Amino acid sequence: MTSLETKFVDGLFWKTLIIGAVSALIGWWVMSVHFAGSVGLGVLVGAFNLRVVSWISRKILQAGAQGSTSSAFWSLLLVIKLFVLFVLTFVFVIIVGANVFGYIIGYSTFLLAIVWQLALYMGREDDLVEDGDTESL
Q1: Where are the alpha helices (DSSP H) in the chain?
Q2: pTM higher than 0.85
């Protein structure tokens, strides 16, 4: 099941970047270069956030599979990641001067990527069953 999760998150990451690039191009065409840059910043922060959460979640699951039930360290890393996310948003919007609406649009592109990725995986039971693992269905 781990390979499915890895493939899913990798696909989600790349789809976020693709949708973000298209959104930035549309923002440049409709609004301005500044707006497009703000969308791009939001996309990069969202993709970075997705990668970090995926990595930490994978580590928590691996520790659980090895019998370790203490995930305090990894939970602390998630809290630190959330703080870094707030700091990055503050820096990009307040200090750098990114357009707030563009930044939010860029950061939210991962939601469209989730819909796209789920649409590709709907009804693909052959990918969900690995080596006779039918309990997870």
Answers
A1: 2-30, 33-65, 72-90, 100-107, 109-121, 125-128
A2: no
